[in-house]
Amino acid sequence: MDNNFSIPNTQRNNIPHKQNNQPDLQNPKVRFTWRDFPYISMFLATIAQLVIWWVYPLIYSKNLEGGRWQENPVLLAYSLLCALVIFWTFRHGFEDWKNYLVLLIPALSLYFLYQRMSGQQVSLVALLPIAMVLIQVRWLNLQNILGLIMFSAIATVAFPVTIFYQQNTYLTIPFLLSLLPLFLSYLFYMSSLFITQGRSMRLTALVFGIMLLLNVLSLPWNVWTILATLIILFTWMVLINLNLKRRYRFGVYAVLQMITVMLIFLQQK
């Protein structure tokens, strides 16, 4: 009996061979196209940040006697750039090298701001892109609760304080203290972007959510207070506990943050 087994030529010809010029269908390459870019999410998140930064200082200032409102389209354009950069960074994660290139855009526009504003004001609004750059640096270890607190604090004061000063030509301690709900909202809604581990993420969001909820419950009880409370509870019980996909987080949380903050701030008299 012959031990050397061989395949007949008729069967050998029927065996499919992978051609070198044929693509591997089992491992297709996913190519990014501009059609895949989340334009709607970017639009909603950007508008949400602009509303948060611009509307409240105007609401608070309506009953104050201050200087004449100084129109500053350059500041508006700069805030738009910062909102877009924040969306890009949070969507792509903190370890994407392209974030540094994107962060150069608002940095280069600071020159035009300096032509219209004082050095102190420019320095204040420049803190936001600087903070985003620092968060990218891995050895600084800011992709955690420390980075969350830093980002929340800077995002809370950078534009609202600058806009308030632009309109009134002065600052007040009550206005600065009234920004506490905005600070707490950043801590709560952005927590899952900095703390991504399941148990730690839920615990961190729970702590900051309780702090924000207590602040909301201190307001006069009405339908808007109840609605803000329901949004906070829904965000923690459903979205955070279900671990919303990262590419959707900032867009969804930014819109919910805007609604919550406006429900709080629109009750300011």
From TrEMBL:
Segment Disordered: which positions?
Answer: 1-26
Bilayer-crossing regions:
39-60, 72-90, 97-114, 120-137, 144-165, 171-189, 223-243, 250-267
Going by the UniProt record, its keywords in alphabetical order are: Membrane, Transmembrane, Transmembrane helix
Q: What is this protein called?
A: Integral membrane protein
Please list the residue ranges that the record marks as compositionally biased, kind Polar residues: 1-25
Superkingdom as given in the UniProt entry: Bacteria
Species source reads Weissella oryzae (strain DSM 25784 / JCM 18191 / LMG 30913 / SG25)
